[in-house]
Amino acid sequence: MTVIAEASLDLAGSAEKVVVRLHAPERSKRGPDWSCTFEVGEPINYQLAVEGVSSLQALALALQMLAAFLYSSEHYEKGELGAFGEFGGYLGIPAPKECLDLAPYPF
User: Fold this and answer.
1) 102 CB-contact burial (10 Å; exposed 0-12 / middle 13-18 / buried 19+)
2) For residues 22 and 45, what is the distance between their CA atoms, to the nearest angstrom?
3) Are 46 and 30 in contact (CB under 8 A)?
4) pLDDT of residue 31
5) CA dist., res. 71 & res. 53, Å (int)
6) CA separation for the pair 50, 58 (Å, rounded)
7) Distance in angstroms (rounded) separating the CA atoms of residues 65 and 56
8) Phi, psi values for residue 79, rounded to 5°
């Protein structure tokens, strides 16, 4: 998988960064659709492949799912996940409309 975007987020109480990666869409192994994978590194350790009918749709959905995952995470809710030197605020990617009650940074 080819990484096409990456960000490093801060985790309160740790000098290490939480690396978030978005991979290039690829043809799905289960049919004609496309799949786009995102991953969240240590200590969260999460990965998800998101499918769409086109590479653009898979990419857009993966970015939205990544944002939803981060903004609804336990670390974010506790104010432990941050970016740009601030915790519990904007993480550098917009929040999907379903998360605006948690993070008012619209997609």
Assistant:
1) middle
2) 14
3) no
4) 81
5) 26
6) 6
7) 14
8) 75, 25
Token digits for 13? 């109480």
Helices (H), the chain: 55-71, 74-77
Residue 1: the pLDDT is 85
H-helix or E-strand containing 21?
strand 17-23
**Low pLDDT (below 50) residues in the chain:** none
What pLDDT was estimated at residue 10? 94
Tokens 């990617």, residue? 93
What is the residue whose two structure tokens read 């080819």? 2
Q: Is the dihedral of CA 75, 67, 87, 105 positive or negative?
A: negative
